[in-house]
Amino acid sequence: MSLSTARCGLPAREILYSSISNALSSIRNSAELHKVHALVITAGLDRSAFLTGKLISKYARFREPTSSISVFDRVSPTNNVYPWNSIIRALAHNALFSEALGFYSRMRDVGVRPDAYTYPSVINACAGLGDAEMGKVVHQHVSEAGFGSDLYIGNALIDMYARLDDMGKACHVFGEMSQRDVVSWNSLISGYSSNQYWEEALWYYSELKLDGILPDLYTVSSILPACGGLVAVREGRILHGLVEKIGVDGDIIVRNGLLSMYFKFGNVTDAQKVFDEMVFRDIVSWNTLVCGYCQLRLFEDSIQLFRDMITTCTPDLLTVTSVLRACGHLGDLELGTFVHDYSERKGMEFDTRANNILLDMYAKGGNLLAARQLFNKMKDKDSVSWNSLLNGYILHGSYGEAMQLFKMMKMETEPDSITHVMLLSVSTQFADIYLGGEVHCHIVKLGFTIDLRVCNALIDMYAKCSKLEDSLRIFGLMDICDIVTWNTIISACNHHQDCCLGFQMINAMRNEGLVPDEASLLGILPICSLLAAKQQGKEIHGYIFRLGFESNVPVGNALIEMYSKCGNLKGAVGVFELMKVKDVVTWTALISAYGMYGEGQKALKAFAQMEVAGILPDHVAFIAIIFACSHSGMVEEGLNLFDCMKNKYNIEPRMEHYACTVDLLSRSGHLTKAEDFILSMPLKPDASIWGALLSACRANGNMKIAERVSKRIIELDTDMTGYNVLVSNVYASMGKWEQVRSVRKSIRSKGLKKSAGCSWMEIKKRVYIFGTGDRSFEQFEEVYQLLDILGSLMAKQGYVPDLQCVLHDVDDDEKEDMLCGHSERLAIAFGLLNTEPGSPLQIMKNLRVCADCHTVSKYISSIVQREILVRDANRFHLFKNGACSCGDRW
DNA sequence: GTAGGGTTAG
User: Fold this and answer.
1) Does residue A572 contact residue A593 with C-beta atoms inside 8 Å?
2) Which of A79, A324, A526, A671 has its CA 20 to 30 A from that of A827?
3) Which among A97, A42, A103 has a CA at the least distance from the CA of A78?
4) Which of chain A's residues 362-421 bind strand B, using a 7 Å CB cutoff?
């Protein structure tokens, strides 16, 4: 149509045609579309290929594919490709993929040649159906038709292969393309990203930049999950900057992606910041936040967010399941049940995944009946369903049910690696090496030894079953390990009191480039405490500062204990004072520290301050404070607290509290009172109770009560080596060798091993260990010579050896020699020889210091004018100028 | 673009 005819008047039909065509382009809703459609029919234009094509597309946009089809049917059959393209695109757009493909084959059947506009929709339909076979066929058609290098078709093919998880082919198509735009790159990158090939996604993203292509918001939104998955913090930050630059109105999808990424980094601050700055938030934004907090195990925050959310936005299944998960972990059955009811009222359909979360919530919360009912009702159970219920039974001690369920599970489905991890945790809890070994066999058979978490659980199981060598063997076989592996092995060293190995492990871990986390620090600090490794402990404290863990409450608590057990009360108090948040464990650590140093008054003051701070003492706090009173001879105060515990705080005294109180009475010489106290106990006294009294009898030389108590302990037939040894020693000091032999025989027949007495000290970061009568160290001759000299000096000052402390049936001369070989003396002498004159000495002993060594230490401190700090199994003794800080109550 | 079960840690 020329310009002149347009101006001077068109035939009516053509005017109608062009005005309808214009109207079709500017239609905004379905009602308008229907009006125009009616107009097309009245004008008799409903067989026009161009107009019908437009109508088909418009109906598709307003989600009325059936109308699209009826429009198409008016022109069909047609040789014009335009309506065919429109109908295929319309159907694919409305997710009617098989229908779209049906029209594609009809089109070919009637001999209409598809063009470059046909294929993208057809390819899209194959991808939507997940039909790899058909996809291949269509790809073949494309090649045959010579469209192999078409940009739009290429992009569609990449997208299709990516959605079929065939990144090899996607990449191949990408490589073959002669021309690429940002969409091509985006399709490839988002393909890698959504199939979780994060390294590749990031790699192609860097290639895209090298190619000089400007990333758009689609690029960013597909690369963000990769940054999150790889914890690529630096790249993530750069992307965030890019979003600020190109995201004019803050594209919501990208912002949601940023939120998710920051949660994957564990960076709550920035996630919250992105969220706070968002102008628009949709359900996904809220869900990402609620789920994100949940995944970082910040369950309370997650629930609080949910409460905030429901005022502005209606929760969906995802929100509900996240909250249910939080309720499960917090054991909040009440809220969980409420949310469950809410979702039922809203008519939400629970899929398997959602049901599993619900099941887990009931199982963790202890409503095993509800869990079981849900489990029985579920149609599509997967291994997670079985495991969740199994875990519920295990958590709540229903081991019989757990085992029965496991049997059923084996019949209906294949137990997976996580099932085995849970079975291992049962073995670990009971230290049941037989069950553990059996599970280990299954694990090997099923090939789960490649699973990191299974190996971690195995290491832990063997460690808790006292098989450190087996733990180390498994550890040695592992090619890859994570922070949990290291932490597990460190805690294993801690359990086995193998301090050297513990330090080796933490160093090896750091050499691997792993940064210790809270659990690592909580594993290594007790090793420092145990070993009294002052220097190492201090270094770790420095490290804690650098890592930013100084405000972590459990870490702070472990630091207080470390300093106090390393002989540095000031350090312990210093850490305590710097802690901003303190819990009952923090205060208890401080009270115990004072207790160990015989600072009973300070312990009492701390106890009072704790109450003022609004923290209620728990049963451990009472053990600490009664212990402190006991070691400071504060009998009245201690008894008072014991009464208070029940009357004021409603805490029922446990065996440990009775043991502490018996210790309190008997240690300060009230042996008869202690015995009466024991006989009036509502619990049946165990060996720890009688043992406390017996130690005091021995120290006091009250052999009458000692003999009665010894009989009681023998009657109890305890497996605790220490109490058997104590009884044997008491008989030995009474010279009753017959009884000594009998007790020793019983120790042997029970297969108990006496832990050998040993002492150790740290000099210039090296730890020196001494056993009883040890002659295996280099300077032993000098050490024994020095002890001889000191012995004669002491004799002149009136020292008489306390031969009751020697526990072998030998003559008195020999006994004296044996006393000289006590490990703490060797350590003291060694320390005197190897440290600066006048400097303080610090010695650790695994057992309690005997009365004679206590006396000797006092003499030595005066003769050599040195402070000697000795930590034994119970407390610290500071020997200075011939006296001891404990006032001889040890 | 958001989702489930288990292992270390006092």
Assistant:
1) yes
2) A526
3) A103
4) 364, 382-388, 391, 416-419, 421
User: What is the band of A845 on the pLDDT scale with cuts at 50, 70, 90?
Assistant: confident
* Residue A243 CA distance to nucleotide B1 C1' (Å): 15
| A633 and A889 Cβ atoms separated by less than 8 Å | yes
Residues 6+ apart with CB under 8 A from A816: A801, A803, A806
* Cβ of A471 less than 7 A from strand B: no
In our burial notation (b when 16+ CB lie closer than 10 A, e otherwise), range A788-825 reads eebbeebeeeebebbebbbbeeeeeeebeebbbbbbbb
The CATH code of the domain at A654-754 is 1.25.40
Task: Please tell me the distance from the alpha carbon of residue A371 to that of residue A362, in angstroms, as a whole number.
Answer: 5
pLDDT digits (tens, 9 = 90+) for A441-474: 999 999 999 899 999 999 999 999 989 999 999 9
Q: Please report, for residues A30, A560, A582, A604, the alpha-carbon distance to residue A579 in angstroms, rounded to integers and kept in the order given.
A: 66, 10, 6, 20
Backbone torsions φ then ψ of A479, nearest 5 degrees? -85, -40
Ranges of each domain in chain A: 654-754, 760-884
Query: Which nucleotides of chain B have an atom under 7 angstroms from any protein CB?
Result: 1-10
Residues A681-700 pLDDT 10s:
998 988 889 888 888 888 77
Angle of helix A518-531 relative to helix A483-495, nearest 10 degrees? 20
**pLDDT over 60 (residue A9):** no
Point out which residues pair with A880 in neighbouring strands: A883
Cis amide linkage into residue A77, ω under 30° from 0: yes
What does the pLDDT look like over A847-886, one tens digit per residue? 888 888 888 899 999 998 999 988 888 788 889 988 888 7
Q: Is the CB of A159 under 7 A from strand B?
A: no
Rounded CA–C1' distance between A377 and B4, in angstroms: 18
Q: Is A187 within 8 Å of A153 (Cβ atoms)?
A: no
Q: Does an H or E element contain A476, and which? A: helix A468-477
Q: How far is the CA of A423 from the C1' of B4 (A)?
A: 19
DSSP-derived letter for residue A874 is S
Report the distance separating Cα A868 and Cα A681, nearest Å: 39
